[in-house]
Amino acid sequence: MIRDEKYYVVELLAAVLKDRQPRPPAPGCDWDVVYREARRHSVAGMADYGLEKLAEEEQPPQLVRQSFRQARLTGIAKEATQHVTVTELLKTLDEQGIRALPLKGFVLKYAYPRPDMRLMADVDILVDDANTKAVGKILTSSGFSCEHEGGNHDVYYRKPYMNLEIHRNILPEKYTFGGYFDHVFNRAVLKEGTQCIYAMTLEDFYLYMVAHLTKHYAQGGTGIRSIMDLWVYRRYYRDTADWQAIDRGLEVMGLKTFGENLMRLAGVWFDSQPGDAVTDAMGRFILGNGTYGTTQNMELSAFTKVYDPQADFQTVQRRYLWRTLFPGMDHMRQVFPWVAGRPALLPAAWVMRGVRAMLKRPKRTLHRVQAVRSTTEDEVAKAKMFYAQSGLQELNHEKKSHL
After folding, report:
1. Among 8-17, 42-51, 327-336, 383-392, whose mean pLDDT is lowest?
2. Helix axes 202-219, 295-306, angle to 10 degrees
3. Does residue 265 sit within a domain?
4. Dist CA 4 CA 135 (whole Å)
């Protein structure tokens, strides 16, 4: 029996992936919590397939079961909409000679038992920076509105739930990963029957998944789905991918230990392998987050990059808060490209950033400020130790932060 509702979500997913009956929940299981956690990690629709395998007497209350079923039906509809929309977009890009590389879930979903099990909040496509304007015109002429432009990617939306991120970089500039992804198009493979649509090699795609997971994990947390993605991918491509090349890539990226720990955790969750103190801590951290982490963890993570036990913590805290409110040029030129090379315009950009944050995300913005002010030195020290135990003590993927 599974006693913790968070871990029961993992059990339902494991049962789907292994095509077995889930172990029964413990007596007194709070099914509302199970649903809430599954939804928070964007896996409620997939978990519904696991509930189908439970005996009738083990089923959740009818209202909760209906919520899971609705999440599944919504996922099926959303996946179908995304598939048709993105397929049409890629066809248009190919016809217009714009090279493109689909990323993440749009590719990975085919490794799952059913594509709707890999629910995507948005679809990510990498294009050359010089072509982002042309892609934007194609999208806006197709009924999309541009929600954000600039930085690592442009964001487009079309009702009812079509979100597209058009990337000019595969990852934000500050994530270097030993330069491994600097020329990803050079290693990409042209898809059969197309002129400009590419796919990553099997090895690069796995390394990209680890890099993307690392970004979220080190920024404040990631969710169940990211660990499940690695497990699903390794099983699906276990005989076709070059896993020795992947190990070498992890070494270059500075993520060998972390990558190994991620797969050990995946083995605990989805293969019933024994865990240890490291996988237990990583599991608790991930299950305590949603799909993309929490604000408190994000600030703790950022603090660890500038924390010096020899320095006065309150001084570091004040400087960090100042840098949070007034970021440097490296960050601001990604948000507002017009400020690049013009430091005199930074104050205007800071004002625009602050106004936009308070108009669009007032609660989140105030929550961030409060999280910074309430963080203690003990919390930062423990977080730094936790990241080191996870395998990120060898972290060389990010440009140094200075206060």
Report:
1. 327-336
2. 90
3. yes
4. 46
- Give pLDDT tens digits for 116-142: 999 888 899 999 999 999 999 999 999
Residues 270 and 336 in one domain: no
The domain of 378 spans 295-390
- Closest listed residue to residue 380, CA positions, set 286, 288, 293, 314: 314
Q: What CATH code is carried by the domain that includes residue 113? A: 3.30.460.40
What's 200's DSSP letter?
-
Write down the residue that tokens 């509702």 correspond to.
5
Q: How many domains does the chain have?
A: 4
- Tell if the pTM clears 0.90, that is, is over it: no
The DSSP call for residue 2 is B
Residues 6+ apart with CB under 8 A from 250: 207, 210, 256, 259
Query: Is residue 49 situated within a structural domain?
Result: yes
Helix (H, G, I), strand (E, B) or coil at 304: helix
Please report whether residue 183 resides in a domain. Answer: yes
Strands 153-158 and 162-167: antiparallel
- Other Cβ atoms closer than 10 A to 99: 18
Question: Of the residues 184, 199, 214, which one is the last residue of a structural domain?
Answer: 199
Both 107 and 187 in one domain: the answer is yes
Q: Which residue has the tokens 């797969």?
A: 263
CA 166 to chain centre: 16
162: left (phi over 0), alpha (psi -120 to 50) or beta: beta
Q: What is the mean pLDDT of the chain?
A: 90
The string of DSSP codes covering 156-202 is: EEETTTEEEEEESSSS-TTB-GGGTTTTHHHH-EEPTT-SSBEE--H
Beta partners for residue 102, in sequence order: 125
pLDDT digits (tens, 9 = 90+) for 257-313: 999 999 999 999 999 999 999 999 999 999 986 544 566 777 777 777 777 888 888
**CA-wise closest residue to 228 among 25, 43, 3, 387:** 43
Q: Is residue 65 part of a domain?
A: no
